Amino acid sequence: MSIETHQSPPWNRATKVIVALAALLLVALLAQRFHTLIGQLVAASILAYILNPIIIFLNKRTKLNRGTVLIAVYLLLAIGVIWALAALGVAAFQQVSTFIDLVPELIADITGFVQTITSRTDPIIIGAFTIDPSIIPWNAIGDQLLGLVEPILGQGGQIIRQLAGTTIRWVGILFFVFMISIYIANEIPRLGGYVANFAQQPGYRQDAERLTREFGRIWSAYLRGQVILGLVIFLVVWLGLAVLGVQNALALGLLAGLLEFIPTLGPLVSAGVAITVAFFQPTNYLGLSGWEYALAVLAFMAIVQQLENNLLVPRIVGEALDLHALVVIIGVYMGGSLAGILGAVLAAPLVATIKLIGMYAWRKMFDLHPFPESESERPSSPSLRERSRKLANAAQNLIKRKKS
């Protein structure tokens, strides 16, 4: 029998179910075995997707081909990442060293403060028992605490060596992510065609193209919006903390910008780190004590958060995800539990994508139109220039209201 006349028998429903379950089981096993590699591939894909508009812009504005522009963009980004890691590493080393030196003095100050307060406190009477706080040996308690902490502080060199080893490992991971991301970025112009061609046979090409565009709208608005938001917060926090005289303001600004990718929880963590650094800072030009200086930094970070939530987020990210804040918080917690930092970062757009696919499947199950509204009825996502113009106009209006 020749190949041309061969008729392959169709699979029955049981065979299709068995093959589908076997494929799902294989995917689950591979995901469990290579979860670290999958995380790196996802990070590479996100990086390629974020940089793609820049590559397209430069490719159109210059005579260089896409490959040359792509290499140039990634090379500049690599230089920036190396510089940022060096700045954060130096800042972390300084903060750890300062913290190790201040711990004994901090314990002595706390025990002295408690002893001063308790010496002025009247005895506490509870039934037949009388407790006099002034006779508690606070100095001995402080010495015991210091004795417990000193062995840990003595391992500071070992901790720093472990940190250096971790840094080297992360440099290797970043190199792998960059290399894979370059290949993905080179294939991005053809990805839409791959998806549409894959869906052509069952007759779902139009649905696949529409879902691909909706998917791109969600991830484009979120990721690129978060990049812009992170840059703005980085500049604001860096300049603000520098004005307040906080040590390592540049590193703290970088940390605040990076943590903007973790909705809700990231800004709280960055504020907590800045407040902690201010509290342990030995001196400041304002002449404030540690806790007063920490309160000043807390007030500044609170103002930044209010401006971000009420001014920046609505105009930069907008309503692209169409998710309730509670859903986002729960999604971040679940994503962090399942996949660590990367899961927390991608939780919000992933939940929005699941909602998109779920609504499509729900409407198909009830023989409804898969998309409740046409694309012409949906407002298009604003470009980077439009978002920057809206943000500048909002800042000007805010300044005018304050002056009036």
List low-pLDDT spans.
none
Kindly state the percentage of residues in helix.
over 70%
SSE ordering: HHHEEHHHHHHHH
Overall body shape: elongated
Strand elements, count: 2
Termini Cα gap: 90 Å
Could you explain the architecture of this structure?
There is one protein chain. By secondary structure, the chain is mostly helical. It folds into 2 domains: 35-189, no CATH class; 205-371 and 387-396. It has helices at 13-33, 35-61, 66-119, 138-153, 156-198, 205-244, 249-259, 265-280, 290-316, 325-365, 384-403, and strands spanning 124-126, 129-131. α6 runs antiparallel to α9. The mean pLDDT is 75.
SSE topology sketch:
Elements: H1 13-33, H2 35-61, H3 66-119, E1 124-126, E2 129-131, H4 138-153, H5 156-198, H6 205-244, H7 249-259, H8 265-280, H9 290-316, H10 325-365, H11 384-403
Antiparallel strand pairs: 1-2
Helix pairs in contact: 2-3, 2-5, 3-4, 3-5, 3-7, 5-6, 6-7, 6-9, 6-10, 7-8, 8-9, 9-11
Please give a handful of descriptors for the protein shown.
404 residues, mainly alpha, 2 domains, two-stranded antiparallel sheet, 11 helices, 78% helix, elongated
